[in-house]
Write a structure and sequence with these properties.
- With 1243 residues, the chain is an alpha+beta fold.
- Helix content is 57%, strand content 12%.
- It has 35 helices and 28 strands.
- The strands form 9 sheets. Strands 6-7-23-8-19-11-12 form a 7-stranded mixed beta sheet, sandwiched between helices. A 5-stranded antiparallel beta sheet has the order 4-3-2-1-5.
- A hairpin with a 2-residue loop joins β13 and β14.
- α28 crosses α30.
- It is flat.
- The chain starts with 10 loop residues before the first helix and ends with a helix.
- The relative contact order is 0.07.
C-alpha cells in the first residue's frame, strides 16, 4: 500500500521515486460517497496525526475530475479527513510530478504508488485520451470506448504486434515494454505459446454486461486468424498493404484468409448472437448464454521444425469448436417491458412477406405485436442495423455453415412453432374450473398443429393432460389452466433450447477440424486456443434463479483467477526456494462452500425439487437454518420470506427465490415429448433429447439414436444419485446440477491450458464515449481483482527459464573458454548433482553477464537482476531482454572472429589467383600491342584500296548519268507522239459512257413518264367527274324551279276557273257555302294537283267542272303524295350526292398532293439517277477491290472470332473474380457497419 514503497529495481529509479515522493507527498486521494476517490492536497496534519486538513478542488462534472493539481478546478474546498478511516492511517498518494500532473503509465505495475485510486485515475487518464487498453503484468484491462477508434485495429497494427510478439526475435522482440497496451498482445502471446511452447492456451474475457466482452472475443478471434497467416521474417510492420499473401513464407503451410473454414470460424459469432443475444436494461446486445470457442490448430512439433530448417514451428488454424452454457430459456416466454426477447424473433418478423410465406403462411402480414412472447418494442435498430438487415446477415451466415434450403426452413419453422405456442389461450373448463382446462383459441391450435405436422387432437391432449407413472402403471391426469399454460411455456422453452443446441452442432460440424481440415496434419492431434465469453456478474433490483447461476459461474472463474494469479505463483516460488513476501488477497472459498457443500444452496434446492410439496419458501428457511455459520449468507429481519442474500466476491446480492424450484426442475412432460417425436419437423422429432455440442462423425441421426437408447436408467438403485420423484414424471438431473457439471468440465479444460486474462470494464452506464464513472469503475476493478494482480506482478518475476536452457541459450556470454571450464570445474567440485551443477554454472554465467544491472539496497544487500531457483532461473523485469541483447552482441563478436578467418583464407586464394592472372595478362598485353601494329598497317592498305575504287566508281557514275538523260529524252518524244491518239480514244470513251448512261436511264425515264401520264389521266377523270356533278346539280335545281312554276301556274288557273264557275252559278255557291271551309283547307293541298290537271287537260269542257273538280281533288291528293315522296327521294339523293362530292373533293385533293409529290419525286429521282450513274462507275471498280478484300477479311474474321472467344473467356473469369471480390468487400463493409456504433464513421 501507500506506506510501503515498492522495492527498487535500479538505483536511479529508487532515487527518482524518493525525490518524487518528497516533492509530491502533499498530493493525495480521499474517499468520496459520490465519486469513490477524488484528488486533494494536504495542507496540514492536526490532532496528533489523527486528522488531516486538505484542499479539495471542485470540478464542473465527474468527467472533468482529474489529477492535475487543481489547475482546471472551478474552486477549492477545505475539508478535514479522519486518518483512521484509511489503511495504516495513511492517505493514498498521487502518481504526479512536481507540478501536480498525473504521470500516466502503460503498465500499472510501474506505478510508483500502487493502490485503488491510482489505478482508477490512471485508467481514466488513458480512457479520455482514446486509449482503451492498459496492461497489468500479463493481464489486459479493456475499457469499453463506446466508439470505433480509427487505426486501433488496422492491418498495420495487427502486423506490428504479430511481428513484435510472434515472428521477430532478438532485442526487444518479445518484450511488452516497447509496445502500447493492446488486446492483440494477449492473442499474439497465446498463439506464440501454442506454436513455440506447444501448450494449449485459453483466454478468459470477463466483465459485467455491456463491458464489451463479446467484441473483445471477436477482436482476439480475428487477430489469431490473421497472425497464423504470417511467418518469421516475412511480416513487414512498415508495409501498409492489406494483402496477407505478401507476408507468407515458404516454410508455412497455412491457408489464406479466404479459406472457407477460417471464414466459417470468423462468421459463426454473429450467428450465435442472433439466437443467443437480447436487449437488457444494461446492454442492447447482451449475451444471454456463455460460450467457449476452441480454435483448433495443426501445430508442428518444435523438434521436427528444427530438423526441417524452419525458423519456428508451423501453426495453422484448422477449425474450431464451440460449447455453450446456461442459455436463459425463461426469456423466451417472458421478458421485462423495457427489454426484448432474443433477436432472431424480431429479425424473422421483420423479414419480407415472401420469405415469411415460404417459412409458414401464418407469418404473413404479422409483426411483433402478433405474438404474445414478443410484444411491442421501441428498439428496432441495434448497432446501426435494423432487424430486417440483420435477418439477411443471419441467413447469409446460416448458408456459410451449411444451413440452407430445407434445412434453413426447418430451423425457422421451429422458431415459428415457439412463437405460435405463445398464442395458445388456455382457460379453466367451465364444467370443472379447478382441475381442468380447455384451449379456447382453436384456430391458433389448428395452425400450430399444421405447422408441427401433428394432429390437433394429439397436440391439445398433450398440452391439457399429463401422464404419470406409478408402480409400472400410467395414469392420465388433467391439468388446470395454470399448469397447462406452464406446460405450454416449458414446451416453448425446450424447443428453443434444443433448436439453439442444434444450431451449435451445425456450426461445429461446419468448423471443426476433424470434419473440415483438408490438409495432412503435421501432428497427431490439434492444439487449441480457447476463448471464453461468459456472462458477467449480475446484480439487479430483483435477482432470480438465472442471476444465481450466473454469479455462481463467475465465482468459479474468480477462483480460477485467484489460483492462477496468486496461489500458483506463490506456491511455485516457495517450491523453487525463492523468498516471496506474504501477499494478502480475498478468497471466495466461503461463497463456493455455501453453494457446493452438502448443506449448500445446490443440495438444498435439489432436495426441495424431489421432496413432495417442496417449495421456494421452504428452500429459504432450510438454507438459513443449515448455513447459519457461513459468512457469505445474508439474512436480515426485514427480508421477505422468499428473499436471502449472498456475499459474493463482487459484493452483496439479494435474491428472490420465487420460482427457484420450478425453474430448477424444468422437466418437459412426457406427453409433450411424445408429441414432439411425431412432428414432421426434424428438430422436434429427433433432437429434443440431444444435449451434446457435437454430432457424431458418422452422422447426426446415429448420434441422436444413441442419445435416446437408455430408457432403464430410472430403475437403477443404490449408488445412483439421479433425481427421482415417485408419482411424477420427473427423472433426471436438475438445471443447476447440469450447469454445475458443465462448469466443472469447463474448469477442468481451462486447468489444462495456459490461461490469459482480459478484464473488460464498463466505464459508464450512459454508453457515452470518453466518459468514466468512478463508482461503478471501482466496483468492477474490485470484482476483477486488479489491485491484487498488480501487486503480485510487481513482486514476482515476469520471466523464467530452466537452468540447462540458460546455459545452452546464453553460452555465448562466457568471456572465454577458460572461464567456462573453470566454472564447470568449480561446480563439479562443489556437488555431484547435475541439476545443482547447472544451477552453479548458470549463477556464475548470469552474475558476470548482468553485473551492470545489480543494485544495492539501503541495508547494503546486493540485489541481482535474477534469482536462482531449484530448477529454474527467475528474471526480474527487463533482465531477460538485456540478456537477449547481450547474447546477440556476443554472437556478433564470435561471428566477426569467424568472418576474419574466412576472409583471410578467401583473400589469400584471391591473391594467388590474381598473381596467376597477372602473368597471363602480360602475355595478352604483348599480343595486343603486336595486334595493334598489324591493324594500323592493314588500315593504311585499306585506305589505298578505297582511293583506287573511288576513281573507278566515278567513271562508272558519269556513264550512268549520260544513259539516264538519254532515256528521259526518249520518253518525252514517245509521249508527244502518242498523246493525240490518247485524246481521241478518251473522247470516244466519253461518248460510249454517255450512250451507256442513256441506255440505263431511258427505261427508268419511260417508267416515270408512264407514271406521270397515268397521274394526268386520273386527274382529268377527277375533273370530268367534278364537272358532271356540277351539271347534275344545276339540272336538279332547274327541275325544282320548273316544277314550282308549273304548280304555281296550275293553282292560278284553278282559281280563275273557280271564279268563273262561281260567277256562272250563284245558286250553287249558296248551297255549297257550308263546304267552303273544307275547300279552303283543301285548296293548298290540291293547288299543285289542280294545276297539273289543268295543264294536262286544257280542252276539257266547262260544263263538267263540278265532276272534274272532284276528280281533280282525288287525283291531286294522289299526285301530292307522289310528289312528296319524290321530293324526299330527291332530297336524299341530293344529300348523298353532296357527301360523294365532298369525298371526291377530298380524294381529288389527296391525288393532287400525291401528284405534286410524285412530280417532285420524279425530279429528285431523275437527279439521283444522274448521280448514281456517276457513282456506279466508282462502285464497279470498288466492287472488285472489295471482293479481293473480302477473302482477306474472311480469313481475318475467322482469326478474330477465335481471339474473341479467348478474350471472352478471359473477361468472364475476370468478372467472376471481381464479383467475388465485391462480395468479400461487401462482407467487410457489413462487418464494419455491424461493429461500428457511429454511423458517421461508417459513412
Amino acid at each position: 500500500m501507500a506506506d510501503e514503497p515498492p522495492a527498487p529495481t535500479a538505483e536511479s529509479r529508487s532515487a527518482e521515486n524518493a525525490a518524487l515522493a518528497a516533492s509530491t507527498s502533499n498530493y493525495v486521494y480521499i474517499r468520496s460517497d459520490d465519486y469513490s476517490w477524488i484528488p486533494a492536497r494536504v495542507l496540514e496534519i492536526e490532532d496528533g496525526e489523527k486528522r488531516a486538513k486538505v484542499s479539495v478542488p471542485k470540478y464542473r462534472s465527474e468527467a472533468a475530475i482529474q489529477s492535475d493539481g487543481g489547475q482546471k478546478a472551478s474552486s477549492f474546498e477545505t475539508v478535514f479527513v479522519e486518518l483512521k478511516d484509511y489503511a495504516n492511517s495513511t492517505l493514498m498518494l498521487q502518481n504526479v510530478n512536481e507540478h501536480g500532473q498525473l504521470k500516466e503509465v502503460d503498465d500499472m505495475v510501474d506505478l510508483a504508488f500502487l493502490h485503488e485510486a491510482a489505478i482508477l485515475y490512471n485508467l481514466k487518464a488513458r480512457h479520455v485520451q482514446g486509449k482503451p487498453y492498459t496492461r497489468t503484468g500479463d493481464i489486459v484491462i479493456a475499457c469499453n470506448p463506446y466508439q470505433w477508434l480509427n487505426g486501433l485495429y488496422s492491418t498495420a497494427t495487427r502486423r506490428h504486434y504479430a511481428n513484435a510478439l510472434v515472428w521477430k526475435t532478438g532485442s526487444h522482440a518479445n518484450t511488452l515494454a516497447s509496445l502500447d497496451p493492446h488486446i492483440y498482445e494477449v492473442s499474439a502471446a497465446a498463439y506464440r505459446g501454442l506454436a513455440i511452447d506447444g501448450n494449449d492456451q485459453s483466454i478468459l474475457v470477463s466483465g459485467e454486461s455491456g463491458a464489451g466482452k463479446t467484441e473483445s472475443v471477436k477482436i482476439c478471434l480475428h487477430h489469431i486468424a490473421s497472425v497464423q497467416e504470417g511467418t518469421a521474417g516475412q511480416f513487414d510492420i512498415d508495409d501498409e498493404s492489406d494483402d496477407p499473401s505478401a507476408s507468407r513464407a515458404t516454410n508455412t503451410t497455412s491457408t489464406t484468409s479466404t479459406s472457407p473454414v477460417v471464414q466459417r470460424v470468423l462468421d459463426s459469432n454473429p450467428l450465435l448472437e442472433a439466437f443467443g443475444n437480447a436487449q437488457t436494461v444494461r446492454n442492447d446486445n447482451s449475451s444471454r448464454f456463455g460460450k467457449y470457442i476452441q480454435l483448433q490448430f495443426d501445430v508442428e512439433d518444435p523438434v521436427n521444425a528444427v530438423y526441417a530448417g524452419h525458423t519456428m514451428p508451423s501453426c495453422v488454424l484448422a477449425g474450431s469448436k464451440c460449447e455453450v452454457y446456461l442459455l436463459e430459456k425463461s426469456r423466451v416466454v417472458h421478458h421485462e417491458p423495457e427489454e426484448r426477447t432474443y433477436h432472431i424473433f424480431y429479425q424473422l418478423l421483420a423479414s419480407d412477406n415472401a420469405i415469411k410465406a415460404e417459412i409458414w403462411s401464418g407469418l404473413e402480414d404479422t409483426d411483433q405485436e402478433s405474438f404474445c412472447y414478443v410484444g411491442h418494442t421501441e428498439l428496432n435498430t441495434i448497432e446501426g442495423l435494423s432487424d430486417q438487415e440483420r435477418f439477411h446477415k443471419t441467413v447469409e451466415s446460416l448458408a456459410l455453415v451449411g444451413v440452407k434450403g430445407e434445412k434453413k426452413l426447418t430451423l425457422f419453422r421451429s422458431i415459428a412453432i415457439v412463437l405460435q405456442l405463445g398464442n395458445l389461450v388456455v382457460e379453466p373448463d367451465p364444467e370443472d374450473e379447478d382441475s381442468r382446462a380447455i384451449i379456447t383459441s382453436q384456430d391458433e391450435l389448428k395452425e400450430l398443429a399444421e405447422l408441427m405436422g401433428v394432429e390437433s387432437n394429439l397436440l391439445e391432449s398433450s398440452v391439457l393432460i399429463r401422464t404419470i407413472e406409478a408402480r409400472n402403471e400410467e395414469f392420465k391426469v388433467p391439468m388446470n389452466a395454470t399448469q397447462a399454460k406452464d406446460s405450454c411455456d416449458a414446451f416453448a422453452k425446450e424447443i428453443y433450447a434444443k433448436t439453439f443446441l442444434w444450431l451449435v452442432r451445425c456450426i461445429n460440424d461446419a468448423t471443426c477440424a476433424e470434419k473440415n481440415y483438408q490438409s495432412t496434419p503435421v501432428s497427431s492431434g490439434f492444439g487449441t486456443i480457447g476463448l471464453l465469453d461468459i456472462f458477467g456478474f449480475e446484480s439487479f433490483e430483483t435477482n432470480r434463479f438465472e442471476q444465481l447461476c450466473i454469479n455462481y459461474a463467475n465465482e468459479k472463474l474468480q477462483q480460477k483467477f485467484t489460483q492462477d494469479i496468486f496461489r500458483s505463483v506463490q506456491n511455485e516460488y516457495e517450491a523453487e526456494g525463492i523468498e516471496l513476501g506474504e501477499i494478502r488477497y480475498d478468497d471466495n472459498t466461503d461463497v463456493l462452500d455455501l453453494v457446493e457443500s452438502r448443506s449448500g444452496l445446490l443440495a438444498v434446492l435439489n432436495e426441495e425439487c424431489v421432496r413432495p410439496g417442496g417449495n421456494d419458501k421452504a428452500f429459504v428457511m432450510k438454507i438459513e437454518q443449515m448455513n447459519k455459520g457461513s459468512p457469505s449468507l445474508v439474512r436480515q429481519n426485514h427480508y421477505d420470506a422468499f428473499e436471502f442474500g449472498v456475499r459474493h466476491y463482487a459484493g452483496e446480492v439479494l435474491y428472490n427465490s420465487e420460482g427457484f424450484v420450478h425453474k430448477n426442475i424444468d422437466t418437459l412432460p412426457k406427453d409433450l415429448k411424445e408429441c414432439a417425436t411425431k412432428s414432421s419437423n426434424i428438430i422436434l422429432a429427433n433432437h429434443m433429447e440431444d444435449d451434446s455440442m457435437m454430432n457424431a462423425s458418422n452422422g447426426s441421426s446415429s448420434a441422436v439414436a444413441k442419445k435416446k437408447a437408455p430408457k432403464k436408467a430410472p430403475q437403477k438403485k443404490g449408488g445412483s444419485r439421479s433425481l427421482q420423484k415417485k408419482g411424477s414424471a420427473l427423472v433426471g438431473q436438475t438445471v443447476w446440477t447440469k450447469f454445475k457439471g458443465q462448469l466443472t468440465a469447463l474448469m477442468a479444460n481451462l486447468g489444462k491450458t495456459r490461461t490469459r486474462y482480459i478484464r473488460c470494464i464498463k466505464p459508464n452506464t450512459m454508453k457515452q464515449p470518453l466518459v468514466m464513472e468512478h463508482k461503478s469503475t471501482v466496483e468492477q476493478l474490485r470484482c476483477a481483482g486488479v489491485v491484487a494482480a498488480v501487486t503480485i506482478s510487481r513482486s514476482a518475476f515476469p520471466n523464467r527459464l530452466e537452468h540447462d536452457t540458460v546455459l545452452d541459450r546464453f553460452k555465448a556470454l562466457w568471456r572465454s573458454n577458460a572461464q567456462q571450464r573453470e566454472a564447470r570445474q568449480n561446480a563439479q567440485e562443489t556437488t555431484q548433482d547435475p541439476t545443482a551443477q547447472n544451477k552453479a554454472m548458470a549463477d556464475d554465467l548470469l552474475t558476470n553477464a548482468m553485473h551492470d544491472l545489480e543494485t544495492v539496497s539501503k541495508d547494503g544487500t546486493v540485489i541481482k537482476a535474477f534469482v536462482m531457483g531449484n530448477t529454474r532461473t527467475y528474471f526480474r523485469a527487463g533482465a531477460l531482454e538485456f540478456l537477449e541483447a547481450e547474447r546477440l552482441k556476443h554472437l556478433g563478436f564470435w561471428a566477426a572472429d569467424i568472418q576474419r578467418i574466412v576472409r583471410g583464407f578467401c583473400k589469400r586464394r584471391i591473391y594467388k589467383r590474381l598473381r596467376a592472372l597477372a602473368v597471363v595478362l602480360a602475355s595478352f598485353f604483348r599480343q595486343r600491342r603486336a595486334t595493334k601494329q598489324y591493324q594500323e598497317m592493314r588500315a593504311a592498305a585499306t585506305i589505298l584500296e578505297n582511293w583506287v575504287r573511288r576513281i573507278s566508281s566515278k567513271q562508272t557514275l558519269i556513264a550512268l548519268r549520260r544513259n539516264h538523260n538519254a532515256t528521259r529524252i526518249q520518253a518525252m518524244w514517245k509521249m508527244t507522239m502518242i498523246r493525240p491518239a490518247f485524246n481521241k480514244q478518251r473522247k470516244a470513251a466519253v461518248v460510249i459512257q454517255a450512250i451507256a448512261r442513256g441506255a440505263i436511264q431511258r427505261p427508268k425515264y419511260r417508267v416515270a413518264l408512264h407514271q406521270f401520264k397515268e397521274d394526268q389521266k386520273l386527274e382529268n377523270q377527277v375533273r370530268a367527274l367534278q364537272r358532271k356533278l356540277e351539271e347534275a346539280e344545276e339540272r336538279r335545281l332547274e327541275a325544282e324551279r320548273l316544277a314550282e312554276e308549273k304548280a304555281r301556274k296550275a293553282v292560278e288557273e284553278y282559281r280563275e276557273e273557280k271564279k268563273e264557275i262561281e260567277s256562272a252559278s250563284p245558286a250553287r255557291s249558296k248551297t255549297d257555302e257550308n263546304e267552303k271551309p273544307g275547300e279552303a283547307k283543301l285548296e293548298s293541298a290540291v293547288s299543285s294537283g289542280a294545276a297539273n290537271a289543268a295543264a294536262a287537260e286544257p280542252d276539257s269542257p266547262t260544263p263538267q267542272l263540278t265532276m272534274q273538280q272532284q276528280a281533280l281533288i282525288d287525283e291531286s291528293g294522289k299526285m301530292l303524295e307522289y310528289m312528296r315522296k319524290e321530293v324526299f327521294k330527291l332530297r336524299g339523293q341530293n344529300t348523298q350526292l353532296r357527301r360523294d362530292f365532298d369525298l371526291l373533293k377530298d380524294n381529288n385533293q389527296r391525288l393532287m398532293d400525291a401528284n405534286a409529290s410524285a412530280g417532285a419525286s420524279f425530279a429528285a429521282l431523275n437527279q439521283h439517277a444522274k448521280h448514281l450513274t456517276k457513282v456506279n462507275e466508282n462502285l464497279t471498280q470498288e466492287v472488285f477491290q472489295i471482293r479481293q478484300g473480302a477473302q482477306k477479311t474472311a480469313v481475318a474474321q475467322t482469326e478474330l472470332k477465335e481471339e474473341l472467344k479467348m478474350k471472352h473467356a478471359t473477361y468472364v473469369a475476370e468478372i467472376h473474380s471481381r464479383i467475388q471480390y465485391q462480395k468479400a468487400m461487401n462482407k467487410v463493409v457489413e462487418m464494419v457497419e455491424q461493429r461500428c456504433r457511429d454511423t458517421r464513421l461508417v459513412e
